[in-house]
Amino acid sequence: MKILCIGRNYAEHIAELQNETPDAPVIFAKPDTALLQRNQPFFLPDFSQDIHHEIELVLRICKNGKNIDEKFAPTYFDAIGLGIDFTARDLQSKLKGKGLPWELAKGFDGSAPISQEFKPVTDFPDLKNIDFRLEVNGEVRQQGNSSLMLHDFNKIISYISQFITLKMGDLIFTGTPSGVGQVKVGDQLTGFIGEEKLLNLAVK
């Protein structure tokens, strides 16, 4: 199983980080050791003083494929869940400033919590109209809708598969809306799709 992630997929998030809008999806990966499941707590690492939350819709790949045409992409994922792409923003900025890869800022242990439940695709009447949000200590911090993605699910799957073979069980984080911010010890992070709570974890 691999974890593939899309960066810069919501215009307002691009603006808040003052990044350039990419022509194609920005792809990066997290190792399987980044996965955090069953609402286990997230422990702040000692190498960063500025860990940010980034809530995302996550696709679960259900069969193997490469060079997938966009029109066939819907048959390659069967469920949608939530994930948080924890980012060591200070480390990322330092690495980016030197023109170096920033995997260490994204792929550290526990940096990819996912919801225990993934909802079947058939539960969604419109995949281009999925509301989701992140609450921190009961306050809404991030709110998004799949309609606001620069590259939709089908485009993401098709694009990735031109370079990387997708396999059953792979997870794809599809990008985060604006509102990212720092987490601190004692925070309680709760993620929702619509009004259904799917993710709930403590920061320690």
From TrEMBL:
Sorted keywords for this record are: Metal-binding
Q: Which InterPro entries match?
A: Fumarylacetoacetase-like_C, Fumarylacetoacetase_C_sf
Keyword Metal-binding applies = yes
The record places domain Fumarylacetoacetase-like C-terminal at 2-189
According to the UniProt entry, the coiled-coil residues are none
GO molecular-function term, one example from the UniProt record: metal ion binding
Q: Return the protein name.
A: 2-keto-4-pentenoate hydratase/2-oxohepta-3-ene-1,7-dioic acid hydratase in catechol pathway
Give the organism the record lists. Hymenobacter luteus
